[in-house]
Specification:
binds S-adenosylmethionine, 8-stranded mixed β-sheet, alpha/beta, single chain, globular, Alpha-Beta Plaits, 470 residues, 12 strands, N-utilizing Substance Protein B Homolog, Chain A, 4 domains, 4-stranded antiparallel β-sheet, 16S rRNA (Cytosine967-C5)-methyltransferase
Length: 470
C-alpha cells in the first residue's frame, strides 16, 4: 500500500471513517463468524467507499485478518496480561493498529493516533491509554525485528519460524509440508522447504479474479473483448487482471459465464474428459453447492445431449446451484438431499463428481480469516463424511464409469488417505492416472492423483483422484 497523505495526517478528533468501516468488518468476522469477503463487500457498498478508500479498507481488513496469529504473538509480548484476558474488541483494535505499523506504509505517528481516536469513539476514553501504550511498543520494532523476537530461529525449528514469519498456524504448515514431501506432485528431494516458503507467500497474496465461459453459451473471445486475458490451461478460463467487478460483464451478469478459479475449472474439465466407453449422458455432482462446477459440467454434458443431477443438502446452497444453472439449457436436476443416502439406483451415472466438504486449506488466498478459524479437529471430523461420500459416488457410477474425488485442500488426511481407505474396502474400483486429463499443465509429479498449487500453478490447491468402477 502506498503512502497516502490523507491517511498520514495529524491527529483527528473524529475517527477516520475508512478505519472505522475496517474495524466493524473485522469485528463481524471475529465475533460473529462472518466471511470477510462478504461482510467487506457489503460494508464498502453501505459506506459508499470506492477507489483508494476502498482499496485502503480492503488492505486493512484482509491484512489484519491474514496476519492475526502473528500479530497476536507480538501483542502478547507488549501487553502485561494474557491476551485471552483482553476484551475481544480491544484486541481487534490492537491487531488493526499492528497491521498498519508493521505491514503497511502508514506513518507510525499517524497510525497510533488514528487508532487512539478510533478507540475513543468505539470503546470510550478509558481504553485509549492502553491502545496508545501498546501500539507505541509495537512501533519500536520492524516486522522482521518482531519476528526474530518471538519466533524460534530457522536453525532451531524452521517450520516454527515460518509459522510466525508467514502467518500460518503451525498445524497447517505441518500438513503442507507433508503434502509437499510425499503427496502427488511432491517437490524434488531437498526442494520441499523452498516450495513450502513459496506456497506460504502465495497464500498471502490475494488471488486474481478468474472467469469461466460456460461452453456453448459464451466463448473466450467474448470475455477477452470485455477486458479479460485467457487463462493458462483452461480452454474456458479468462483472468480479470486489473480486478474490478465481474458483474459488469454481460456474460457473467446473465449466467453465461461465472467467476471460478482456474483449478476448479480444471478438475471439472478433467472429469468430463476422462475416457468412458458407451453411454455418457448421465452425470452426477454429488456435493454441488454453490454450483460453480455444476454449471461447467451441465454445460459440458448438454453438448452431449445429456443431463446433470446436482445434489446438495443445504436448501440455501441448493438455491445457489439452481441460480448457477439458470442460463444452461437442458433438463438438469437439483436435488436437496444427503449424498451419502442416494435416492437413485446404484450404477445410475456415467460420471460422478465428489467435490467433498473439506477444510478449504487450498483456498487460503481468497479467505483471509480461514486459516485461524479452522482447526485440526475439523479435518478429523470431516473424514467419515468424506469417505462416505466417495463410497456413495463409486456406488452411484456404472461399471466402466468414472468418479472424480476432489478437495480444495492439499491436507493428506483429506486427499490420499481418504481415497486409499475407501479403495482398500472395495474390490470394484481402482485409481487411474489423472495427469493426462490436465494436458500441458506442468509439475504434476508421479501421479496417479493430481495436486495443483497456488505457488506452482497460480490456482487454488485443488486435489483430484480419478477412480474407475469395474
Ligand atoms: C466443497 S463444496 C462443493 C463446491 C461445489 N462443487 C462448487 O464447485 O461450487 C462441498 C459441498 O458439499 C455439501 N455437503 C455437505 N454434506 C453433504 C452431504 N452429506 N451430501 C452432499 N453434499 C454435502 C456442502 O454443503 C457444500 O455445499
Amino acid at each position: 500500500m502506498s503512502d497516502r497523505s490523507p491517511r498520514n495526517r495529524a491527529p483527528q478528533l473524529k475517527a477516520d471513517p475508512v478505519r472505522r468501516v475496517a474495524y466493524k468488518v473485522i469485528r463481524q468476522v471475529t465475533a460473529e463468524g462472518g466471511y470477510a469477503n462478504l461482510v467487506l463487500n457489503k460494508a464498502l457498498r453501505d459506506a459508499r467507499l470506492s477507489g483508494r478508500d476502498a482499496a485502503f479498507c480492503t488492505e486493512l481488513v484482509h491484512g489484519t485478518l491474514r496476519w492475526q496469529g502473528t500479530y497476536d504473538a507480538f501483542l502478547a509480548r507488549s501487553v502485561s496480561r494474557p491476551l485471552a484476558d483482553l476484551d475481544p474488541e480491544l484486541l481487534d483494535l490492537l491487531r488493526l493498529g499492528a497491521h498498519q505499523l508493521l505491514n503497511m506504509r502508514v506513518d507510525s505517528y499517524a497510525a497510533v493516533n488514528e487508532m487512539v481516536t478510533l478507540t475513543r469513539s468505539e470503546l470510550g476514553q478509558k481504553r485509549t491509554g492502553l491502545v496508545n501504550a501498546v501500539l507505541r511498543k509495537i512501533s519500536q520494532r520492524t516486522l522482521d525485528q518482531w519476528i526474530s523476537t518471538v519466533a524460534p530461529t530457522p536453525e532451531e525449528d524452521l517450520l516454527g519460524f515460518l509459522a510466525v514469519a508467514d502467518a500460518h498456524p503451525r498445524w497447517v504448515i505441518d500438513a503442507f509440508d507433508r503434502a509437499l514431501t510425499d503427496g502427488p506432485g511432491a517437490a524434488p528431494p531437498g526442494e520441499a522447504v523452498r516450495e513450502l516458503e513459496r506456497l506460504l507467500a502465495a497464500d498471502n497474496d490475494p488471488p486474481r479474479v478468474t472467469l469461466a465461459a460456460r461452453p456453448g453459451l459464451a466463448d473466450l473471445d467474448e470475455l477477452v473483448a470485455a477486458g479479460a486475458t485467457p487463462a493458462r490451461w483452461s480452454p474456458y478460463g479468462a483472468v480479470l487482471e486489473g480486478g474490478g467487478d465481474p458483474g459488469r460483464i454481460e456474460a457473467v451478469a446473465t449466467g453465461r459465464a461465472g467467476v471460478q478459479d482456474e483449478g476448479s475449472q480444471l478438475v471439472a474439465i478433467a472429469l468430463a474428459s476422462a475416457k468412458v466407453d458407451g453411454d455418457d449422458t448421465q452425470w452426477l455432482d454429488l456435493c454441488a453447492g454453490p454450483g460453480g462446477k455444476s454449471a461447467l459440467l451441465a454445460a459440458l454434458v448438454q453438448q452431449r445431449d445429456g443431463q446433470l443431477t446436482a445434489v446438495e443438502p443445504l436448501k440455501h446452497r441448493a438455491e445457489l446451484v439452481r441460480s448457477n444453472l439458470r442460463a444452461i439449457p437442458g433438463d438438469h436436476k437439483v436435488l436437496v438431499g444427503d449424498g451419502t443416502k442416494p435416492t437413485w439406483p446404484a450404477g445410475s451415472f456415467d460420471r460422478v463428481l465428489a467435490d467433498v466438504p473439506c477444510s478449504g486449506l487450498g483456498a487460503l488466498r481468497r479467505r483471509p480469516e480461514a486459516r485461524w478459524r479452522r482447526t485440526p479437529e475439523d479435518v478429523v471430523e470431516l473424514r467419515p463424511l468424506q469417505e462416505a461420500l466417495l463410497d456413495s459416488a463409486i456406488t452411484s457410477v456404472r461399471p466402466g464409469g468414472v468418479v472424480a474425488y476432489v478437495t480444495c485442500s492439499p491436507h493428506p488426511d483429506e486427499t490420499r488417505a481418504v481415497v486409499d481407505a475407501v479403495l482398500s474396502r472395495r474390490d470394484d474400483a481402482s485409481l487411474e492416472d489423472a495427469r493426462p486429463l490436465f494436458p500441458d499443465v506442468p509439475d504434476l509429479g508421479e501421479g496417479p492423483d493430481v495436486q495443483l498449487w497456488p505457488h506452482v500453478h497460480g490456482t487454488d490447491a485443488m486435489y483430484l483422484a480419478l477412480v474407475r468402477r469395474s
